[in-house]
Write a structure and sequence with these properties.
Layout: E1 6-8, H1 13-17, E2 21-27, H2 32-47, E3 53-58, H3 63-68, E4 76-81, E5 84-90, H4 95-105
Parallel strand pairs: 1-3, 2-3
Antiparallel strand pairs: 2-4, 4-5
Helix pairs in contact: 2-4
Length: 106
């Protein structure tokens, strides 16, 4: 079965990113570039499934998490290691770029 990106909310955000490496995609359903990024994030989730977590936050629902990390434009993708941001991207990113960022954080 293919791994899917986890759906995060303000309630489970801190707990989910707290340990290990997690890529978080901050997105919204009305954002056209986010619709391009979404399938790429799902492919990354499959590639790194055993080594890192991949998650998504709908900024309309996860305002607290988005605000905490200064998300102003979407898509914004942040790689966290043990709850701390180590790399951040704004705009659509390639699968290779994201997998590379996760591998650097591992």
């Amino acid at each position: 079965m293919a791994e899917k990106a986890l759906e995060l909310t303000d309630e489970n955000f801190v707990e989910t990113i707290g340990s290990g490496v997690t890529l978080v995609d901050f997105w919204a359903p009305w954002c056209a570039p986010c619709m391009v990024q979404g399938p790429i994030v799902e492919k990354v989730a499959e590639k790194v499934a055993s080594r890192a977590k991949v998650a998504k936050v709908n900024v309309d629902e996860g305002r607290q998490a988005a605000g905490q990390y200064g998300v102003r434009s979407i898509p914004t993708l942040i790689v966290f290691r043990d709850g701390k941001p180590v790399q951040q991207f704004v705009g659509v990113q390639s699968e290779a770029q994201l997998v590379s960022a996760i591998e650097q954080a591992l």
